[in-house]
Design a protein that fits this description.
Structural class: alpha+beta
Number of strands: 11
Number of helices: 2
Shape: globular
Distance between the termini: 56 Å
Strand content: 25-35%
Order of helices and strands: HEEHEEEEEEEEE
Oligomer: single chain
Helix content: 10-25%
Radius of gyration: 20 Å
């Protein structure tokens, strides 16, 4: 009898600790407002590139968040046309993705908060990191055309950017590695 009591208390204590850690360790989600912004230090020598508005009539990605974005990239690459935006990643006020046909980085601003959307691009082959900034305002996309090595992979990092101070802020989110050639 006493042994059953100890097991029950242990299970209850473990469940309580797990619930508490989940409540205190969960990062901000894409639609969650942020109270105090925390500055993010970017790697030394990161190049900041201002994005351009997509051409009139261009097929632009949706600014609506998708719950399964990190998991659907491989399926999207196999089943979709060449202009599919892969590696969709979102955090509060920003969404970003990579279009392998033309090596286009998309930066979408989803919140009217006086800050810009920023999408950092990192490679697995040593090319210097760059950040595509969308200064076009809320509910817009900006693109940065790049030329990445076709045998390489890119990884996206989305966060907020304050153009007045030149500083980046959390919350942030990272994509998985995305093949530049779009073939998973």
């Amino acid at each position: 009898m006493r042994e059953n009591w100890r097991i029950k208390v242990s299970v209850l204590a473990g469940a309580s600790a797990l619930a508490f850690s989940a409540l205190t360790a969960v990062p901000a989600v894409a639609d969650e407002a942020v109270g105090d912004l925390q500055e993010v230090q970017m790697p030394e020598g990161v190049k900041i590139v201002e994005g351009f508005a997509p051409a009139a009539g261009a097929d632009v990605p949706s600014l609506e968040p998708t719950a399964d974005a990190p998991f659907s990239a491989a399926a999207a690459a196999k089943a979709a046309p060449a202009n599919t935006c892969l590696g969709s990643t979102a955090a509060y006020g920003v969404t970003g993705c990579f279009q392998h046909n033309g090596d286009v980085v998309w930066a979408g601003d989803t919140k009217k908060d006086g800050m810009s959307a920023a999408v950092g691009v990192y490679t697995d082959y040593g090319r210097a990191a760059e950040v595509c900034i969308n200064k076009l305002g809320v509910n817009t996309w900006a693109t940065c055309d790049k030329d990445y090595r076709e045998t390489g992979n890119v990884r996206l990092r989305v966060l907020r950017y304050d153009g007045d101070t030149g500083k980046f802020y959390q919350p942030e989110s990272w994509s998985g590695w995305i093949p530049v050639d779009g073939k998973y």
